[in-house]
Amino acid sequence: MAENLERLKQRIPLLEYLQRHNWKPCRTGIRQEFVGLCPLHPETRPSFYVNAAKNLFYCHGCGRGGDLIRFVQFFLDLPFHQTVALLEQELTAAPVFRLLEETAGFYQFQLHRHPEAIRYLEQRGLHDPALIEEMGIGYAPGGNLRRHLAALGYSFDLLLGSGLISSQGRDAFCHRVIFPCRQNGQIVNLYGRSIGAAFPHRLLPRSKGGLFAWESVSSFSIVILVEGLFDLAVLWQAGFRNTTCGIGTQLTPAQLAQLADQPGRSIYIVFDQDENQAGQKASHQLARRLEDADIAARIVHLPHGHDPNSYFVGGATATDFTGCLERAQQL
Ligand SMILES: [Zn+2]
């Protein structure tokens, strides 16, 4: 029993578990030590310490401390045996999530070794290194992921099942800028934008997850919704932090529920102004679905032929965009 528990704690590192549940750690300056707000009670000054090497936590605010199992007991208010059963369950689903984390980290590292990728980000108007880091943007040069993951002990079947590798053993993402898509802090999919001639958009064959970075947007009473991650990135960069992205114009029921989870919220829809009116039609459909859910929706019109990304790349400023928001129409 004790041996099993040790193995469980090793396989779900406490820091990783906390981060998966939205805990935001800062380094303390002491090796492997992190501090942040205590997830076990409301507080404004961080007093929750984690020692990643020892796999232990201690909170100076509430005086609680211990290992992963102890934390989950407090966090979910569960008895010991139920906590262990829950963590064991989580472990069977964990390999794919860990694989995606590992892959996203690897691609992030590659970004800075490939000037063509940085150049592409600059072309798309993205130049703030802090934002690139915050969004976890990476680059898949192609041809080196499989070897990296195999060296870490991931099986070919798992790589194949995740969609990261084709049945011929080739990397799914090649010459693509990568954005990790998170839900509840956990990476559920990767979006790859081709920087070459290949089809522009690619997602792994998994759920695309919720709205991008919804945790950081959900407290706003006005939310801007865009189609693409580059639209989102330039808007965040321009200071519109209340922007989220559904990756495409067709929202999943889960994404729609997120938009509607607070009464009194207004959604500003800023989809592409397509030649064939596809974006405009999708905006109207979505606005209607939101109105049905008692959420006020406005449709934002950008100058002809633009999406938010091309609008900013073309020289628009935050003031220009605010003007567009102010002119937005209700259905
Ligand atoms: Zn505490």
Rg of Cα set: 22 Å
- The helix fraction, in percent, is 40-55%
Distance between the termini: 62 Å
Overall pLDDT metric: 91
Proportion of residues in extended strands = 15-25%
Q: Main sheet?
A: 5 strands, antiparallel
Assembly state of the chains shown? single chain
Q: Strand pairing plus helix content: what structural class?
A: alpha+beta
Q: Which regions have little confidence, pLDDT < 50, spanning 5+ residues?
A: none
Hetero ligands: zinc ion
Structure overview:
The structure is a single chain. With 331 residues, the chain is α+β, with helices and mostly antiparallel strands. The protein has 14 helices and 14 strands. It has helices spanning 2-11, 14-20, 68-76, 80-111, 115-123, 129-134, 145-151, 156-162, 214-217, 229-237, 253-259, 278-292, 308-313, 318-326, and strands at residues 26-27, 33-36, 48-51, 56-59, 65-66, 138-140, 176-183, 186-194, 201-203, 222-226, 243-245, 266-270, 296-299, 329-330. A five-stranded antiparallel β-sheet has the order 1-2-3-4-5, covered by helices on one side. β7 and β8 form a beta hairpin. α3 (68-76) crosses α4 (80-111). The mean pLDDT is 91. Bound molecules: zinc ion (ZN). Zinc ion binds next to loops.
Salient structural properties:
single chain, alpha+beta, five-stranded antiparallel beta sheet, 41% helix, binds zinc ion
Summarize this, please?
This protein is an alpha+beta fold and 331 residues long. It has helices at residues 2-11, 14-20, 68-76, 80-111, 115-123, 129-134, 145-151, 156-162, 214-217, 229-237, 253-259, 278-292, 308-313, 318-326; strands at residues 26-27, 33-36, 48-51, 56-59, 65-66, 138-140, 176-183, 186-194, 201-203, 222-226, 243-245, 266-270, 296-299, 329-330. The strands form three sheets. Strands 1-2-3-4-5 form a five-stranded antiparallel beta sheet, with helices on one face. It has a five-stranded mixed beta sheet with strand order 11-10-12-13-14, with helices on both faces.
